[in-house]
Amino acid sequence: MADRDFTKRFWAKVEKRGPNDCWLWTASKDRHGYGTFQLNGKPRKAHRLSWVLSNGPVPDGLCVCHSCDVRLCVNHSHLWAGSNKANTVDMVAKGRNVTLRGEEASWSKLTNEEVVAIKSTVGVSQRKMARQYGVCQTMISKIRLGDRWRHVT
Description:
Layout: H1 4-11, E1 14-15, E2 24-25, E3 36-39, E4 42-45, H2 46-55, E5 63-66, E6 79-82, H3 84-93, H4 112-120, H5 126-133, H6 137-145
Antiparallel strand pairs: 1-2, 3-4, 5-6
Helix pairs in contact: 5-6
């Protein structure tokens, strides 16, 4: 996996700073804010590839975690291999277990203002509203029933 072309192409997308600083991924990222890199036609997490380049394969059953909590960081000295449970314990201990909801979530297609409009609109079909707001009809239904976006009044 770590041939010269791959290695050179990978590190060209990294803003390297001092050895103890975060090295930021400058190319594409996924919807959760982690860097992604195309390898053999598949998107791979950039921090995992950094681990592989520096330490070899990720041990079976483990994930690559950030000690710095910067999702775009690929500095191998900021990465550690741990179980999902260890990663969750780390997250909770650092107070990062905040659940984003509504328009605070980067993947949200709707704003609070649009949800208020959806909730207050009468006499318009759910399908028509779904097309208008770029979501599925099921989402319009769940908003109106209070199953989604209930925090918006």
